[in-house]
Design brief:
Elements lengths: L2 E2 L3 E15 L2 E5 L3 E5 L4 E17 L9 H11 L7 E4 L3 H20 L6 H19 L1 E2 L10 H16 L6 H7 L4 H12 L3 H19 L5 H7 L9
Length: 238
């Protein structure tokens, strides 16, 4: 059944064939595939055959054990919950073995280190090592920005982060510009340069996605209630 989590999820298919649905889109599963499912995303495993792998679950709070750069990449890039879902493919046998070893080390610390000094910090470091390895050696469904983040890219990341936390209450670009201490022009220029989309388009896409999630899989809110809750003039059902 399709379901929603209130935590981050990394699914590693060391071996497997089938389909995985995330936010209404189906993706192929093959050996060496990793899926990154964000908070609030709807996902479902479908038509799975002979699969073997691991799942890593962690909360928003856990990210604060990591460096600022890794934290931002994980939260705003890899787990950007209103962009296309992120998938990483490891297509070489030796690299699959390397990823498996990284998972094994994580599992060992998780199971055997919980009473030892620095347990949470070590888990954060091991997960960071995994993310860095995947970023360097994996084939991603999204082209990452280079680590040298210019001002425009920082504006974009901060904007995405703020939209995720405030899209239900804030619907205008000028509200976000004020909150981020930027002019509307600077925010428009930076976000458009990095993403190819204007800030208002990103805000509206996030609102529309949340409405679609609720209306598709929740009995708690009707179309009218969604319109009232978020001050919709028109309720989009895609």
């Amino acid at each position: 059944m399709p379901h929603v989590h209130d935590f981050y999820l990394i699914v590693w298919f060391e071996k497997g064939m089938g389909k995985h649905m995330i936010d209404f889109k189906e993706y192929d599963v093959q050996d060496g595939t990793l899926f990154f499912v964000s908070l609030g995303q709807i996902h479902q495993f479908k038509e799975m055959f002979r699969y073997k792998g691991y799942g890593i679950v962690f909360s928003e709070d856990f990210l604060y054990n990591m460096s600022e750069m890794i934290h931002k990449y994980i939260r705003n890039e890899i787990f950007g919950s209103f962009k296309s879902s992120f998938i990483c493919y490891i297509d070489k046998i030796n690299l699959i073995e390397d990823v498996q070893q990284l998972f094994n080390v994580l599992l060992d610390e998780y199971e055997n280190g919980n009473q030892l000094f620095g347990h949470q910090d070590k888990l954060a470091l091991l997960l960071s090592n995994l993310i860095i390895f995947l970023k360097r050696h994996g084939t991603w469904s999204y082209q990452f920005k280079d680590e040298k983040m210019d001002n425009d890219y920082c504006y974009y990341l901060n904007f995405i982060d703020y939209v995720e936390g405030h899209f239900k209450q804030m619907h205008e670009v000028k509200e976000y510009a004020k909150a981020l201490n930027l002019s509307v022009g600077t925010l428009n220029k930076g976000v458009t340069k990095v993403s190819g989309k204007r800030p208002l388009e990103i805000i509206n896409e996030r609102i529309a996605l949340e409405a679609k999630r609720i209306l598709s899989y929740s009995l708690e809110m009707t179309v009218k209630q969604v319109q009232i809750c978020w001050d919709f003039q028109t309720c989009l059902i895609l």
